[in-house]
Amino acid sequence: MSDDLQPENKDLRPSGKRQVVGVSASATTSSEAYAARRAKENKAELEESGRGAVKDFFPEVVDEMKRVIWPTGRQMVNYTAIVLAFLIVLTAIVAGVDFLAGLGVEKVLIRD
C-alpha cells in the first residue's frame, strides 16, 4: 500500500543538498563566508545591545534627526490644543475624585 505513494522512477527523488540554480559551487557558503557573516551579526548584536561605540552616538542622532518629518505650524497648534484640552479634562476628573473621596472620608471619620 505504501508503494502506491512512492514514485516509480527513483531518479525523481531528491538526493542530497540542493544547489541554487545559476550559482557556482564556489559561491556556496564557505567557512570564510560563514565567519564573515557571523562577525557582522556579532557587530549588529553589539550595536543593538547598546555596547557600541559612544563616538557613533551623536552622528547617528544627527542622521535620525535629518530623517524626521517635522509637523507644520498648523499641526503643532492643533496638537497643542488637543493636549491642553485633554489635560483640562483629566485635571477635572482627578479634582472630582479627590473632592468625592474627601467627602467620603469626612462622613466616615467625623460623626455628628
Question: Can you put this structure into words, describing what you see?
Answer:
One of its GO terms (biological process) is protein targeting. Essential subunit of the Sec protein translocation channel SecYEG. Clamps together the 2 halves of SecY. May contact the channel plug during translocation. It is a single-pass membrane protein. It holds the Pfam family SecE. Helices cover 59% and strands 0% of the residues. With 112 residues, it is mostly helical. It contains 3 helices and no strands. The protein folds into 2 domains: 30-68; 71-111.
Q: Please report which band the strand proportion falls in: under 5%, 5-15%, 15-25%, 25-35%, 35-45% or over 45%.
A: under 5%
- State the helical fraction: 55-70%
Query: What is the chain-wise order of helices and strands?
Result: HHH
Number of domains: 2
Global Rg: 34 Å
Number of strands: 0
Topology:
Elements: H1 31-48, H2 57-67, H3 73-109
Describe the structure concisely:
This protein is mostly helical and 112 residues long. The protein contains 3 helices and no strands. It has 2 domains: 30-68; 71-111.
